[in-house]
């Protein structure tokens, strides 16, 4: 969180959408943000700046697989769902 206002706004909103940047936001920083938002309704995470070449299969489709995140924020304990097509159909 770049500003303290974000935590205050999270307290009066229906949900929080966490935005992180690939290659820039560290896991440690993301975990600290989750700690700061503990008890808030985190509805999702957006990964900005990801390159197609970083994905498992980037020819036409990309799928992500993973185990649930081990984090105290129960709203984030979800499996990674398949990504939609990145290329022409």
Index terms:
89 residues, alpha+beta, two-stranded parallel ribbon, 2 helices, 21% helix, elongated, disordered C terminus
Topology of helices and strands:
Blueprint (H helix, E strand, L loop, with lengths): L3 H9 L3 E6 L5 H10 L5 E7 L41
Parallel strand pairs: 1-2
Commentary on this structure:
With 89 residues, the protein is of the alpha+beta class. The chain has one domain. 21% of the residues lie in helices and 15% in strands. It is elongated and about 40 Å long. It starts with a helix and ends in a 41-residue tail after the last strand.
Q: Care to give the gist of this entry?
A:
By secondary structure, this protein is of the alpha+beta class. The chain has helices at residues 4-12, 27-36, and strands at residues 16-21, 42-48. The chain contains two helices and two strands.
């Amino acid at each position: 969180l770049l500003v303290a206002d974000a935590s205050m706004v999270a307290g009066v909103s229906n949900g929080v959408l966490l935005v992180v940047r690939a290659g820039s936001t560290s896991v440690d920083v993301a975990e600290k943000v989750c700690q700061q938002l503990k008890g808030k309704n985190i509805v999702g995470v957006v990964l900005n700046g990801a390159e197609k070449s970083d994905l498992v299969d980037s020819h036409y489709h990309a799928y992500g697989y993973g185990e649930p995140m081990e984090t105290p924020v129960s709203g984030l304990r979800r499996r990674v769902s398949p990504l939609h097509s990145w290329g022409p159909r």
